[in-house]
Amino acid sequence: MILDIDHFKKVNDTHGHPAGDVVLRELARLLKAAVRTVDFVARYGGEEFVILLPETGGTHSREIAERIRTRAAKTPVTLPDGKEISFTISLGVACYPSCGKAAADIVDRADQALYIAKQSGRDRVCLYRETS
Predict the structure, then answer these.
(1) So which residues are the catalytic ones?
(2) Is the pTM of this model over 0.90?
């Protein structure tokens, strides 16, 4: 899955880049706490993260993604100036081998699903298989 912080630019523009860094660190902590030890969490770029869930099918991947989405929305972040803000995330999920056999295809399809999640209102999970 690929996930992205919704309206992250607004956080940086309104509260400054140190505040954005706090949000990124809090999300990274939340992601690591939400997955198994065999799963892999990494920052993919900017405000995007990728999570690899070995031997996890689409239904279970959706459950995990929804759990992460809900936790993010319910987790306030205390900024360096003491203010508390909340944030939401959108997630795109693609599964091997149903969405492709090559890693690049899986990433591309998860990214397409993320784009649809963003375009359909943000703060949601979209599975690639549901986009066809």
Answers:
(1) 47
(2) yes
